[in-house]
Structure formats: C-alpha cells, structure tokens
C-alpha cells in the first residue's frame, strides 16, 4: 500500500514538471508546503518505508558512479525522487530506526557532487539534486559536525552555477533555503563554515538580480540575515562585501517591492548589531573603521528615505527604518551633521501620530547620549514640547520610556539648561499626586516609579533647584512624593525599579531629611530601612557578578552557532553602566547615610537626635553602627 502511495501520489506529474520549467520560482514556493511537521506515517508503514530505501540504494549508487545510462529520460529518476520525498516527509517517524547519515553519504552525496549536471536529471531538470538538497534540511539533526564542511562545499561549488542566468533557478533557491537551515541549526559552527563564507556571500549576491519574484529575493536576504546572525562579530570582516552591493539592490527595486526594501533595512540593522558586538569584544575580530563608516553613511541615507513622512512608501518602511536608525546611532561614535539634521524626521513623524512612539523614544535616547550639548541646544524646545504632548496619552511601555529619556536629560544636561524641561517633570509630579490621593484613574505603578525616579534624580543632583523650580517650595507636595516613594519601593518589581534607581531614591530621600521638617523627619526610620535594603542588594549583586566572572572562565569558549548568538544576547543584558551612572554606583551608601546622620545629630542636638533614633528599628541602626 505504501509503495502504491509513494509511486502513484508522490511522483512528480507532467504538470509539476511543466510548472518547474515555466515558473521555477513559484514551483519552489509550492514545494515548501511539503513539510515533515505536517506529515504523519502510521507505525505499520515504517518497515515498508525502510525497505524502500534499501531497494532504492542499488540504483542510486550505480547512478552516482556513472554506471547508469543517462541517454534520454529515465523514469526511475522520478521514482527515486518520490522515495526521497517520502524519506524527507517521514524523517520524524524514521528518526529512531534509520541511520540517515551513512545512507546519505553512500547513496546521495556521489550524485550531488557529480560534475555531470545531467546525472539525476529528467527533461533537463535537476530532479534528484533538488530533492537531495531539500532532504538535507529535513535530516539536519542527524548530520554530524564532520559532514557539514564537505556539504557546504557541495552546495556552493561551483560558484559559477549561481552566476549562470540559464542555470536552474529552483535548484538555486533550494540550495539557499537549505543553507539558511544549516546556519540556523543548533549544530552550526562558525569555524567549520568560515572557509565557505566568502563563497556563500558571492553566490547569494550573484543570484539576487536573477530572481523575478519578491518572495525569492526575500529568501536570499533571509539567508544573508541568518548568516550574519550565526557568525556574529566574525561577519564584520566581510562588512564591505555585504554592504557594497546593497545600494544597487535598493535602487533596482520597483515601487511595488517595498517588502524587499524593508528586508534590506532589517539586514543592515542585523549587520550593525554584529558590528556593535565586535566593538564590545575586540578579541574576536579587528573592526576596520573605513568599511564600518561606509555602512553607517549608507544607513543614514536609507533611514532618511524610510522615515520621511512625505514619502508615499513610508507606511511600509517606517518601522524597519526606525529600528535601523536606532542601530546606526548605537554603533556611531561621532555625531555628524547628517545625523543632527536627520532628527527632523522624528519631529515631523510625531506631529502626525504616535503610532511608532516607542521606537521614536529609543531614537531620542540615543540622540541625547551621542549628540549631547549640540543636540540639546538645537532641539531642547522641540523635545520638551513633544514629550509634554505625549505624556499621559500613551500606553505604559511608552510612558516608561518617557521616564527613562527624562532621566537621561536630567543626568546629562547642565542644570542651568534644564529649567525649560520642568513642565514635563511637573506633569509627572501631578500623576504621582493623583495616585497618592487614591483617585481610581491613575498611571500604572510601574510608570509612577519611573516618574519618581526622574524627580529623585533631580533631587539628588540639585535639591535646592528641585524645591524651587519644580515644587515652588511646596513642602506638602514634597511630602506626597516622599510617601509615594516609600509606598512604591516595596510594591513595584525590580524591572521598572532597578537597583540603580533604588539607590537614587535612597539618596533623594536622605536629602529630604536635611530640610529638618518634622513631617519629613518622621519618615527617618522608613528611609533608613530602604537604605539598608539597597546596601544589602548591592552586596548581593556584587557576589553574583564575581560568580558570573568565575563561571565565564570555565565555559567552553569554542562553542558558536545559535548557542553563540544566545550567549551574546545574554551577555549584552549585563551591559556596562552609562557614564552618568558610574558615580552613583561607586558611591558608598553606608558612609553617605552615616554622614547624613552625623549632620542631623549636630543640627538637632544629642537629645532630639536620640529621640529620633528611638523611632528607628534597632536592627536597622546596627547596620550603620557595625
């Protein structure tokens, strides 16, 4: 029964062959619907299927050795194609009872590498080569590491095949898709693939202009993106080879192929991610300034086009353009005039709508760090007006970013230039008052924690400025903010309220005690409890960092591929602190609190100070006396 199903229903028909010849790109796409995940072979058919592979072996071996006449079309080629199709679709069911790799090396590889292109062909179509290449993607899990280098060689050689416009397009596409599967596989190793990387790039760029369908071009770009992702920082050595053809690919695309242009934007962003990784770890590869700068200049040009609201195609390109813009700013080390002027696109976009506000706020964050004073002096009024309009009118994710951007402004802009930004911070204060008054409609607690972090940062930097310019010397409002901090410190999670922010809160709360206001002094015990929590959290984090460093030394550095990508992502989460945060992290909080307590003792006198300490838990006091 299985033999009948395979030979009758799984054999290529005359119609299939005609479609392959007349429209190979569509045919290749159609073949993608045949997947092992959607195929299920009953248990009783497995012995019959393995018997079919044994029966096919004799013909396949003879064909690979050139012992089968290839004059005219051989129907057995279609029969073997059907058997191989069954083996691929049944790979999950056969996994435990069929040793694929030795069978593959003996029976199929000789056909794949045979220099005679007519071997395994039918009506001039490379039927068996196509199926063998497809079969590799089905059985990757059973292919050992030592098989992969010769397999790369077999897929990519001769590279002239990809340059020949009249060579079979369906086979080229199938090779590209299988190559993508191999580099995405957990078993991928960069060192094994490295000798074939230049050739892979050459083949992919050679085929791109030959493809007529946007979907086929997307597959080429998808494979390129997978290679960049898998190779990580190592790909930076090929930065020029990858980026040089991109302008031609971009300009040759018609107005109808914005999907392809969007994919090019994503590809460039992925390449910049690898550059960023190489910049952080110079031991992997030497980053050459020239090719990287050329890539950055190119990114600025396409970003300008993709994020221009007057461009009718921006609806298809805006999101990818903003993501590329963010990556460009992260990699850039010099704030150029082109980048400075490009920010106008953000202002025009936000005048229209807030659809992309999260990505826009990330762009703004990078501009504040890269452009510093030059950026702020030019755009401070626009930025303040923009955030004033946005705050309270967006979802929590964007509100959290507004808080983060505001913290950067407060921390990096000279205090005498911050006054114009106070209306935005006042809106945050009003939101905190609404919450503390118990009104039902208020911002989420995580957002309020972000707003309070902005106020706390300002208090820590210049308490007198905060009291005068933000709070208009209203101590009642200050008390509301203090009560909000004391409440949210324990109820908000560590994601919005990081250890750095908790420390900033501690420093700000300590600053309020120096006002000597009775209602604020009454909070001394709670403030000191929070300080103790932060001190203990800092000690615990330091232990974890030391343990992580020790673990990294013991880790096998040779691992790569998808595992390497995961490892790089995990390490990127442990990024270095920003310049403005280093003094805060380095500050000895225990010594700082002791200094505040000594000052209070002097100003209150020993009697009143002793009464104040009586309100503090003894276990808390012992932390500062030890």
UniProtKB/TrEMBL annotation:
Location of the Importin-7/11-like TPR repeats domain: 293-625
Which GO cellular component does the record give, naming just one?
cytosol
Q: Which PANTHER family match?
A: IMPORTIN N-TERMINAL DOMAIN-CONTAINING PROTEIN (PTHR10997:SF70), IMPORTIN-7, 8, 11 (PTHR10997)
Q: What is this protein called?
A: Importin-like protein
The protein's matches in InterPro entries, at most eight in alphabetical order, are given as: ARM-like, ARM-type_fold, TPR_IPO7/11-like
Q: Which Gene3D superfamilies match?
A: Leucine-rich Repeat Variant
Q: Which domain of life is it from?
A: Eukaryota
Give GO BP annotations, semicolon-separated.
protein import into nucleus
């Amino acid at each position: 029964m299985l033999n009948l199903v395979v030979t009758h229903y799984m054999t290529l028909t005359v119609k299939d062959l005609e479609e392959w010849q007349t429209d190979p790109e569509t045919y290749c796409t159609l073949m993608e619907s045949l997947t092992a995940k959607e195929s299920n072979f009953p248990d009783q058919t497995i012995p019959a299927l393995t018997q079919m592979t044994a029966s096919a072996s004799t013909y396949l071996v003879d064909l690979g050795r050139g012992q089968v006449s290839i004059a005219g079309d051989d129907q057995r080629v279609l029969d073997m194609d059907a058997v191989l199709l069954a083996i691929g679709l049944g790979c999950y069911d056969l996994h435990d009872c069929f040793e694929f790799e030795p069978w593959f090396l003996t029976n199929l590889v000789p056909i794949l590498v045979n220099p005679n292109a007519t071997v395994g062909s039918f009506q001039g179509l490379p039927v068996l080569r196509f199926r063998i290449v497809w079969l590799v993607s089905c059985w990757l899990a059973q292919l050992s590491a030592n098989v992969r280098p010769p397999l790369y060689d077999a897929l990519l050689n001769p590279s002239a095949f990809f340059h020949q416009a009249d060579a079979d397009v369906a086979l080229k596409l199938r090779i590209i898709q299988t190559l993508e599967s191999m580099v995405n596989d957990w078993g991928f190793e960069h060192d094994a693939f490295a000798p074939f990387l230049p050739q892979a790039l050459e083949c992919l760029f050679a085929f791109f202009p030959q493809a007529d369908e946007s979907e086929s071009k997307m597959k080429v770009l998808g494979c390129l993106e997978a290679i960049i992702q898998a190779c990580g920082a190592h790909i930076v050595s090929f930065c020029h080879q990858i980026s040089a053809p991109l302008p031609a690919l971009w300009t040759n695309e018609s107005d109808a192929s914005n999907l392809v242009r969007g994919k090019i934007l994503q590809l460039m962003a992925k390449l910049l991610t690898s550059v960023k990784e190489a910049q952080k770890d110079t031991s992997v590869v030497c980053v050459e300034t020239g090719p990287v700068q050329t890539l950055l200049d190119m990114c600025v040009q396409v970003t300008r086009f993709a994020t221009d609201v007057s461009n009718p195609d921006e609806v298809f390109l805006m999101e990818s353009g903003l993501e590329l813009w963010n990556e460009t700013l992260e990699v850039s080390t010099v704030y150029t005039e082109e980048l400075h002027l490009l920010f106008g696109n953000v202002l025009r976009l936000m005048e229209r709508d807030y659809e992309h506000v999260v990505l826009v706020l990330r762009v703004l964050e990078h501009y504040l760090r890269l452009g510093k004073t030059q950026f702020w002096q030019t755009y401070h009024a626009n930025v303040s007006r923009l955030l004033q309009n946005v705050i309270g009118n967006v979802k929590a994710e964007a509100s959290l970013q507004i808080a983060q951007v505001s913290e950067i402004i407060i921390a990096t802009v000279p205090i005498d230039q911050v006054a114009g930004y106070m209306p935005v911070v006042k809106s945050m204060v009003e939101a905190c008052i609404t919450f503390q008054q118990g009104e039902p409609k208020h911002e989420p607690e995580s957002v309020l924690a972000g707003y309070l972090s902005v106020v706390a940062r300002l208090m820590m930097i210049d308490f007198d400025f905060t009291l005068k310019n933000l709070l208009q010397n209203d101590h009642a409002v200050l008390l509301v903010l203090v009560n909000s901090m004391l409440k949210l410190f324990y109820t908000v999670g560590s994601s919005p309220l990081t250890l750095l922010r908790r420390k900033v809160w501690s420093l700000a709360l300590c600053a309020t005690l120096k006002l000597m206001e009775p209602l604020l002094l009454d909070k001394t015990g709670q403030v000191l409890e929070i300080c103790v929590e932060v001190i203990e959290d800092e000690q615990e984090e330091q232990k974890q960092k030391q343990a992580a460093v020790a673990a990294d030394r013991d880790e096998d550095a040779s691992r790569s591929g998808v595992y390497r990508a995961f490892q790089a992502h995990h390490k990127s989460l442990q990024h270095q602190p920003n310049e403005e945060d280093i003094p805060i992290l380095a500050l000895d909080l225990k010594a700082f609190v002791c200094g505040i307590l000594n000052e209070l003792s002097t100003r209150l006198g020993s009697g009143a100070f002793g009464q104040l300490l009586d309100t503090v838990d003894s276990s808390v006091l012992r932390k500062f006396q030890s």
